[in-house]
Amino acid sequence: MDFKDLVQKRRSIRKFTDEPLTPEEVQIILRAALMSPTSKSTRAWHFYVVDDKDMLEKLSQCKSAGAEFVKGAPLAVAVCIDTDATDVWVEDASIAAVTMQYQAADLGLGSCWAQIRLRGQADGTPADDLLRDMLGYPDEQTCVCIIAFGHPAIERKPQDEEKLKWENVHIVS
Ligand SMILES: Cc1cc2nc3c(=O)[nH]c(=O)nc-3n(C[C@H](O)[C@H](O)[C@H](O)COP(=O)(O)O)c2cc1C
Q1: For ligand 1, atom 20, which residue shows the shortest CA distance?
Q2: In the chain, at which end, N or C, are there fewer CB atoms within 10 A of the end residue's CB?
Q3: Which atom of ligand 1 has the smallest separation from the CA of 69?
Q4: Ligand 1 centroid distance, CA of 155 (Å)
Q5: What is the pLDDT of residues 42-100, one digit of tens each?
Q6: Confidence of residue 1 (pLDDT cuts 50, 70, 90)
Q7: What range defines the domain where residue 91 resides?
C-alpha cells in the first residue's frame, strides 16, 4: 500500500485480538520511532515497551478515563522524553508516537494513542507520576502518551474523503 492510501486507512483501534505481535513487528515499530525526526537531532525520547498483562492493566488505570483500551492490547509503548534535553519535547515525543502508529498501520496492525501529558486521576494526581512509579523512569523524563498496538478486532472505515476539512487550508498568495 502506498503512503497516500495508508494515511486514509489508519484509524484509531481500541479493540484487539489476543494475538501477540511478533518480535519482528515490535522491532520494526520501535525502529520507526528511533528514526523519527527530532529538533536539533536531540533524540531525547525513551520508549518503555510493555507486553505483560498485569502491567498493561495497571497502565490502563493511570488516568481516570480514556486509557481503558490499553489493558486489552497485547503491546503498549509509553513514550517518554527527557525534558531537560530539549525545549520542544512535546513535539519530539509526539512525532515519534505518530510515526509508530503509521508504521503499525503499514504492518496491518491497529493502534491508539492514550494521552498522558496533562491527564491524571480525578483527585488531581498526574498520570505521569503514577507511570513513573510503575515503569521506573527517572525524574527528568516525562511520559507524553502511551500507544497501544495489536491486531484489530474491529474493522473501521477509512477516512472519508468527503469530510476532509479543506476549508481549514488557507492558500496564502
Ligand atoms: C493528542 C491525542 C490524544 C489522544 N488521546 C486519546 C485518549 O486519551 N484516549 C483515546 O481513546 N483516544 C485518544 N486519541 C485518539 C483520538 O481520539 C483519535 O485520533 C480521533 O478520534 C480521530 O480518530 P482516528 O484516529 O480514527 O482518525 C488521541 C489522539 C491524539 C492525536
Answers
A1: 12
A2: C
A3: 11
A4: 17
A5: 999 999 999 999 999 999 999 999 999 999 999 999 999 999 999 999 999 999 999 99
A6: confident
A7: 3-168
The residue type found at 16 is: F
11 lines ligand 1 (CB under 6 A): yes
CA dist list (Å): 46 to 89, 92, 150, 169: 11, 11, 21, 34
- The answer to whether position 157 is within a domain reads yes
- Domain total in the chain: 1
Best probe residue, ligand 1, of 12, 59, 159 (max atoms within 8 Å of C-beta): 12
Report the CATH number at residue 12: 3.40.109.10
- Of 84, 80, 77, nearest in space to 142 by CA: 80
For residue 134, being part of any structural domain is answered with yes
pTM of the model: 0.98
CA distance 67 to 86: 27
